[in-house]
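call fold(seq) -> tokens
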Amino acid sequence: MADRDPDDRRDGDDWGNRDDRGDGNGEEWASGDDDRSEELSSNGGSPDPAGAAPGGTDGRLTIKGLLSTTAVSAAVLLLGVAVGMVGLVASITVLSVGFGMGFDTGQNVTVLIVLQLVLLQGVGFGVASLAYLRYRGLGLEYLRTRSPTWSDVKWVVGIFVASFAILIAGNLFLSALGLGGEGHSIAETASGNPEILLALIPLSFLLIGPGEELLFRGVIQNAFVDRIGVRSGIAASSAFFVLIHLPNYSGLEGLPTLGLLFVISLTWGYAYERTDSLFVPAMAHAAYNATQFGLLYITLKYAPETSSALLSSALLL
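ret:
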């Protein structure tokens, strides 16, 4: 299915026109005019049938675009999860039958977690992203995976620090309200087997950060921004990001934590749009998780008596 040139996106907002990005430093980000009226005129008053329907003044067009993009994004996400789960079941079967490995409670937990990450974030999300690109007739440049610059590295550091600041401030705010956060399921599992965390540190950079940002920023956020604009697109992709983490923060106790997760996801989506590079949110995401894995490991290994507070406040994405 052919689509319009990904560099010719119009969002209807007063910022984030992607065709006026300049050098990726955000300096020319707010410039540019909107030629949506010319497109409507050239198509007889109808939106580009294969292109984006930006968040302009036509409310019906925006709602239609939002609904269709939500459906496609949900389908892409479900495809990624399905591919990952099929691969996980097949891998467990092969290891159990062929090599006699058991995966009952407490057995080969590290292997199981590594398999989940490789097959979901690595294989599942990768396959789903490529399927979406093929469906829309787009190339890899749509994902904005250009070579990083020194400016991108500075953005990674800044967004990483901002993410941790949000985490700390959010936990303090929730504590002041008497609302406790809920620890990630991996953090709880690691409390009985801290060595898991050592494996997760490099995987944060190899799979977790890149895999999740590929799908949620490179595919889902781009799709929503094409339809409803930059601000709304960032919020919509962050909502999907929260959705995939529901199994790790379940129940009413997890709602405050999910709200905090949403805010942090917004910062990564913002960085992606400002820098025009998938490298920035991927590495900021990876560094954010890897730092928490490292802190959890040190605490569980050398100060287990103080680990309960850290386990409950850890927000792993």
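The first helix runs from residue 36 to 42.
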